[in-house]
Amino acid sequence: MVVSPPSQAAAAVSILVIIVTSALYNMLFSRKWDPRGKHCLITGGSRGTGLALAILLAKRGAHVSIVARDKPRLDKGLEGLERVRQDPKQIFRAYSFAVDSETGSAAALKAAGEPHGGRCPEALFLCAGASRPGFFIDQTEESFMGGIQMTLGAQAFTALATTKEMVRQGVKGKIVFVSSILGLMSFVGYTTYAPGKFAIRGLAETLRSELKMYGIDVHVAFPATILSPGLDEENEVKPKVTLKIEETDSGSPPEDIAAGILRGVEKGSFHITMDFFGDIFRATAAGASPRHNPVLDILYGLIGYIALPFWRKSVDAQVIGHAVEHREYCHTKGYLS
Question: For this UniProt entry, which segments traverse the membrane (predicted)?
Answer without folding.
Answer: 6-28, 175-193
